[in-house]
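Internal tracking record. Fields below are filled automatically when a chain is submitted to the structure queue. Please do not edit lines marked as system-generated. If the sequence contains nonstandard residues, flag them in the REMARKS field before resubmitting.
Queue: standard
Priority: normal
Entity type: single polypeptide chain
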Amino acid sequence: MTEPIVNPFVAGNPVTGSLFVGRDDVLRRLEELWTVPKPPSVILYGHRRMGKTSILQNLGTRFGNQSQIIDFNMQRVGFVKDTSKLLYNLALTCYDSLAPEQQSALGEPTAFSEDDPYNAFDRFLKKWDKHRQNQRLLVTVDEFELIEKGINAGRLDPNLLDFWRATIQTYPWFIMAFAGLHNLEEMRHDYWHPLFCSFKPIIVSFLGEDAAQQLITQPDPDFPLDYDTDAINEIINLTRGQPYLVQLICHSLVSRFNRQTFEEGVERERRFTLHDVRAVIESKEFFRDGNAYFAGVWVQAESADNAQQTIMKTLADATDGLTIAELAVQTQLSDNILDHALTVLARHDVVVKQPDKVVYTVELMRRWVREKVPAEMV
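SYSTEM-GENERATED OUTPUT FOLLOWS
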């Protein structure tokens, strides 16, 4: 080996192309739903950094031949003044996705009136229908919680979601795929109700053991390094198959291999051992590099009564978990507050309520809370 290995692991950014592995279950489910004459719209929901954005960005591989895929990421749309600007931005994004000859036939949409944006967008879709050449229009809406923020701030009309429901019912070729942290049970505002019956929920959760092993050992077909079985098992045990954390550990392993081999002159096998995995996890850089993920989970657990974070901090000192009774004593939370907080934490994949105790779902999350969250922050 004469030069460093190109690191195939991606920790943080969406994964596309041949590097996107381990989500065949979700893609198969989408194929089942979208190979019928009237395909439903969907909501992909799940824990932070589970790969929802990566799934959306890889839909073209499976569905690009039959669908015009529109990437309408709410973060990139930015601050929109009102509903008319949002729908106009969506129409422009659809228009910009077309080939020049299709753009000429359709005509660039003009700004929508603030008084009647819904009719303006509907007219745009009617024109689109004449030129779509039997292709479906698949609009992916990432970070859909930002819609809720816009509604709560008074910038977006709550009727927007009802309009989208009516649109997908009117035009069977118009499909929407939302992605975000919330599941339908957490959308308590009345304006979300139109989505309950019209959108199919699909959970994006931890990778199964086989998928995690595939990601670890075969991030691309030409990956030149190998792993001991103990090293693979340790990565899966530490991460529970959380895809971002799997990528982070493996990215760190390859970086360490390159540094040892080409900077420090260490002669070593092209194989990762249990020692390598533990050395990476125990390095000062690991939790720093993964801080956005860990801190994001911690901040999501904020609540008025601090119950969720109190539970997380208390559990972090218990390697083998605690019983409900032990948690009640150590946290001093009432039974009702404790039960509600545990239910939310379990729904967000932070803890698992086993028959006899409560444990962290992801061991690395437990270690981060234990090492990085001081007691006075709770």
